[in-house]
Design brief:
- α6 crosses α7 (177-198).
- The protein is an alpha/beta fold.
- It contains 17 helices and 13 strands.
Length: 410
């Protein structure tokens, strides 16, 4: 596995090399946008309050004093401490802005304005600045000032409603997927805005404000559901792990107690599955010849596949499905992910260098740009770790930094 160097470095051949991002956001979603920019070669500076009380540092499990979520979630960033709510902190923040291309924030709508950091003020400091505002519900509308977290977005988007067993309650996964999805949209928005701005002559380049609502990001994933509701009066609901739009596609238990996910939704793949199961005639059965027919007869078909899986161990099932090129996978735990030979061969899990723990395992940079070396990344920074370096670029001397530290400005 790859081991990184101890300091953040940019990937000189990755698309965002030379871009500078100032991340003043908290918790998961918006900081993930900035982290993805770091993965793509941007230089990212993370602002924390001087007390270092970002909630992300307390997300369980915390190993002693080491917040693993923080270390991986803010990888590749430099860290400074700053309280922009204080006049000196606000002034120092505005002095920093001309050195950055992008600002990322996730405070409730109107909060930055109350701190004297409204859009006009930010763009006076840097007219080229791209500002990503990632909130739960956006900058406008009746819910604009509501607080929100991943599970709120998942619930209000309709995602949780279609997750879970048919006769059970809606469910969330044990990870803030809503935050991760919103962060992905944020990184995409930043890249789009940079492409637009940088296509103009330098003296004509102007920044923009990006209004990203996390709930809308989750809604965007559920592409066809509004159309189903509008034209067919359908409100798709829970069906466990079974797909009701294509068949067969479900999770099945093997004789040796493993769980297997199997997808044979096209007619050709379904025919190969039938051969693998020793039931070649099913492919010519009128109940199963098309996806529409299979979904109409889903319960009986699913039960037959479940019975087949229940009678064989995982290795035997895998051999048969591999022989007939039917897509499937054991449902992996994270331990399975880390041990998988394909993941290992591609360095899918990398080792970030960390001053406290030596190395910390984390997912690799995604996607890969063929023929290029990705950025060298380290774990998320300690509170104010790079104060001297970052503020030194502004001309602040050690005695001034110490005075600001004593005043709890930094």
């Amino acid at each position: 596995m790859t081991t990184t160097s101890p300091t953040p470095q940019t990937g000189q051949h990755y698309p965002l090399h030379g871009v500078r991002v100032l991340d003043m956001a908290t918790v998961v979603a918006a900081p993930f946008s900035a982290t993805l920019c770091a993965d793509m070669g941007a230089e990212v500076v993370k602002i924390e309050l001087p007390d270092g009380n970002d909630a992300m540092r307390g997300l369980a499990p915390v190993m002693g004093q080491h917040a693993l979520f923080w270390k991986t979630g803010n990888r590749g960033k430099q860290g400074v401490s700053l309280d922009v709510r204080k006049p000196e902190g606000r002034d120092l923040f505005l002095r920093m802005l001309p050195n950055f291309d992008v600002l990322v924030e996730n405070f409730r709508t109107g909060t930055m304005d109350r701190w004297g950091l409204d859009l006009a003020t930010l763009h006076r400091a840097n007219p080229r600045l791209i500002i990503l505002r990632l909130t739960g519900f956006g900058q406008t509308g009746p819910y604009a000032k509501r607080p929100g977290f991943a599970r709120i977005f998942e619930a209000m988007s309709g995602l949780a409603y279609i997750t879970g067993e048919a006769d059970g309650p809606p469910q969330h996964v044990n990870y803030p997927v809503g935050d991760a999805v919103a962060g992905l949209f944020g990184a995409f928005a930043i890249a789009s805005a940079l492409a637009e701005r940088n296509a103009q002559p330098r003296d004509a380049q102007r920044g923009c404000e990006i209004d990203l609502a996390a709930t809308e990001a989750l809604m965007r994933l559920l592409d066809s559901l509004p159309a189903e509701h509008q034209h067919m009066n359908l409100a798709r609901s829970r069906a466990g792990s079974r797909a009701t739009y294509t068949a067969p596609s479900n999770v099945y238990k093997t004789a040796d107690g493993h769980w297997l996910t199997l997808v044979a939704s096209s007619d050709g793949i379904f025919a190969r599955l039938c051969q693998a199961m020793g039931q070649a005639d099913w492919a010519h059965d009128a109940r199963y010849q098309t996806n529409g027919a299979r979904t109409a007869n889903l319960e009986g078909l699913d039960q037959s596949i479940a019975d087949w899986c229940a009678g064989l161990d995982l290795q035997t099932i895998g051999q048969r499905l591999d022989e007939y090129e039917v897509p499937y996978s054991k449902v992996y735990s994270v331990a399975d992910v880390c041990a998988d030979p394909h993941v290992v061969a591609r360095d899918g899990i990398v080792q970030l260098q960390d001053p406290d723990l030596g190395t910390v395992a984390a997912p690799c940079v995604v996607p890969r740009f063929v023929g290029r070396t990705p950025p060298v990344l380290r774990t998320g920074p300690a509170t104010g770790e790079h104060n001297a370096e970052v503020y030194g670029r502004l001309g602040l001397k050690p005695d001034e930094l110490e005075r600001l530290r004593q005043a709890r400005v930094i």
